[in-house]
Amino acid sequence: MLGPQRIVCLTEETTEWLYLLGQEHRIVGISGYTVRPRRAREEKPKVSAFLSAKIDKILDLKPDCVLGFSDLQADIASALIRHGVQVTIFNQRSVAEIFSMLFQVAAMVGQAKPGLQRITAMQADLRAMQAAVASRVAAGARRPNVFFEEWDVPHISAIRWVSELLGIAGGDDCFAELSLESLGKNRIIADGAEIVRRNPDIIFGSWCGKKFRPENVAARPGWADVAAVQHQQLFEIKSPDILQPGPAALTDGVHKLHQHILRWMDADVQKRAQP
Questions:
Q1: Does one domain contain both 19 and 67?
Q2: Are 75 and 141 part of one and the same domain?
Q3: Residues 75 and 143 in one domain
C-alpha cells in the first residue's frame, strides 16, 4: 500500500477528503471540531482543537504523517517535528489552492486518479453554476451585492475562498478587497456604517460555529434601510459547510450560496418586469 498508513488530521477538510477517497482506514486521529463526515467523530480519536493539540496523545498514536492547515498551526507542527514526526501543513486560501491541496493529499495516499476524477467533477459543477448565472444575466438579471459575515462582533468579512465562491455562485462580494487578507483580524470592519453604505442585497452569516441570528442583524442600529434587511435576505451558511477550505466549501457550501442567489436574481427580474 502506497503512502502514509497512520495519518493524523489536525483539521476537518483532510479528514473529509480521505473519507471521500475511501482511505479513512489510514486516519488514526482527528480534530475535535470535525463534523464532516459525522461518523468520523465516532470512529476516530480526537487529538486537537485548531490552535492547540494533545502532543503526547498524537505521539502515542505513532503517526507516520500529520496533516494540518495554515500558519496558525505552526506551533503544533514545530512541536511534532521536534519529536521526529513528518508534518505537512497546507496553507490553501483560494479555490485553486484548495483543489491543489486535494490533489496533493490524494496523491500522497496513492489515489491520484480517483482524486483527480472527483476534482474534475467538482470543477465542472462550479462551471455549471457560472453558466446558470451567465444565462440569467443575459436575460436581464442583476448580480446581487453580497455581504458575507464570518463573525458578528466585530464584523469580519469573507476570507478569499468564500469571496471567490460567492462570485462563482452569482454574487459580488461587498468587501472583496479585504478577502486577500488571510487573518480575520485584518478583515475586521470596525464601522458598521460602512456595511450599511455598501447596501448589500443579501447577507450570509457563518459565525464560526455560533448560530447566526438574522433577527439580531436586522435590529442593528441604522440597518433597517439595508436592502437585505428590508427584503429579508438574511441567511445562515453553516461554518462546516463553507469555512472549511476543502470539499465541503466546493460542494455543499457553494451550492447553498448559489440557491439563495439564483432565487434572488429570479425575484429581482420579476420585480423589475412589473409595470
A1: yes
A2: no
A3: no
Domain annotation covers residue 254: yes
- pLDDT tens-digit readout, 233-248: 999 999 999 999 999 9
DSSP the chain: --S-SSEEESSHHHHHHHHHTT-GGGEEEEETT--SSTTHHHHS-EEE-SS-B-HHHHHHT--SEEEEESGGGHHHHHHHHHTT--EEEE---SHHHHHHHHHHHHHHTT-HHHHHHHHHHHHHHHHHHHHHHHHHHHTT--PPEEEEESBTTTEE---HHHHHHHHHHT-EETTGGGTT--SGGGGEE--HHHHHHH--SEEEE-BTTBPP-HHHHHTSTT-TTSHHHHTT-EEE--HHHHSSTTHHIIIIIHHHHHHHHHHHHHHHHHHHH--
For position 240, which CATH number holds? 3.40.50.1980
pLDDT single digits (tens) 81-133: 999 999 999 999 999 999 999 999 999 999 999 999 999 999 999 999 999 99
Stated pTM of the model: 0.96
